[in-house]
Amino acid sequence: MVGTPRLGLVGRITERHVLDGLLARVRAGGSEVLVVRGEAGIGKTALVRYAARQASGFRVVQLTGVEAEMELPFAGVHQLCATMPGRLDALPPPQRHALSVALGLVAGEVPERFLVGLAVLSLLSAVADERPLLCLVEDGQWLDAASSQVLGLVARRVRADSVAIVVAVRDPVAEHDFDGLPELRLAGLPEQDARVLLANVVAG
Fold first, then answer.
1. Which residues pair with 95 in a beta bridge?
2. For residue range 51-61, what is the model confidence (pLDDT) as tens digits?
């Protein structure tokens, strides 16, 4: 029996295969990073949610860039680390202190972003030791500068830790900390698929 296409995923067979392959490789012990780029409303969020649904056996953590918080340093890092409480004690002391200051848990001078990035990388790796980890980032273009730089650093250094990082970024956008990473660019749907999607919206 053929099911009704999921809203927002009409005509995205190739893109779903890319995400399925990414998750399969991470289940096998590798690490993967993918930046999903496209215009507003083109289906980036639908693909991120598809990845979350397909991630059986994974721990899934998610953060969303918030335009109103772009001027708040480490706001995105705080959102991410809030999903993994109680893990800071496992970090090396310099990393633990830097991340604790960034999160406002202890007083101190503004930490170096590189050290905060290493701390977040160690945190994700520690979580992935228990089971594969899928980190989803929506609206990456609205992350505060500190968090964007930290996550870009993490994405470039994650290795063989059973960690998948999928970042959705709106185009067009100026140079970004995720530039140079593996990309999946979304184009508009063919006219026939667009009509099917519109029919689903009307019927729903």
1. none
2. 999 999 999 99
